[in-house]
Specification:
Its EC number is 2.7.11.-. The chain is α+β, with helices and mostly antiparallel strands. It has 16 helices and eleven strands. Helix content is 48%, strand content 14%.
Amino acid sequence: MVDMGGLDNLIANTAYLQARKTSDADSKELQRRRRSLMLPGPQSCEQLRQALPADFHSLCEQQPIGRRLFRDFLATVPAYQEAMGFLEEVQSWELAEEGPAKGSMLQGLVATCAAPPAPEQPHPFLSPALVTKCKAAATEEERASLVELAKAEAMAFLQDQPFREFLASPLYDKFLQWKVFEMQPVSEKYFEEFRVLGKGGFGEVCAVQVKNTGKMYACKKLDKKRLKKKNGEKMALLEKEILEKVSSPFIVSLAYAFESKSHLCLVMSLMNGGDLKFHIYSVGERGLDMSRVVFYSAQMTCGVLHLHSLGIVYRDMKPENVLLDDLGNCRLSDLGLAVQIQDGKPITQRVSGSPLAPRVGHRVGEDGERAVLFPGRTEPWT
């Protein structure tokens, strides 16, 4: 197996050395690349401001950049920050393992709801009636139910005045700048292509590097002629659409999508840990410890549940399609056979003829911070 971490370091070092050259041509090229990374001015965002729906769920929860900037805005107002902090505590309680510790967290949440932060200063995001009920809660079932109600009231509070103020703040202007930046066209000239990682029936996966940033990715290139010959265009387009909707740390994420004259290209981050099949059969003693089985199963389940919450059926679960990152966390990959469920319509699509053989995409993935720090851009395929 090729050491992709070593390849990543080699490419990054080469880019660094190239950047240190002092010739006029290199200096001008470096300046051009730096300019290409600058956010567009606020004046270029007015058209998007008018066209973008003011939807709280889309702007402040689904989109990582919007979620990050909205939290930065909440941190500027103590009352808003208090509501956000409460929701984070609720999330920690929801994700905690069953046991005494989770019970203590639940009691702490109810106590927080029942006790105001200061005398004669109730929580701004909770109703007086709910506070009264929290004071009288006696059983664990009552406490859990009240915490869910408190969570709903806190969310409703943030969706009201805080959200309206966010839309009028400079941080929302920054969000619009990021979205306009994402809309800039991307082509094959944006990347430097390196070695092929694998091949399949409709194309290949190769390592690529973004010229302007030095970031390494895996590019899934689907040959247009092969797609047309084998009637795979619909499946390829559906995979792109599904990847654009997915936002989970347990599923590979799409960074860029574009088309050249001969290929449809999906650009995703490299996963340096290999696939689960490799770890089962080729690392140490054959098989996995039960602790790792439970750990991977939980992460795969979270990924599948996220897809189901979007009305998407995966249909291609196998060790070759489960990728590991540098820290040993796993993600589901290769959504070529996934389908979007239509209300009232059965699935009639056959499950054979995937755009890439299962073993080809085993290094495709995405790190969790990419979408927050440097957003991807996708181009429509025609």
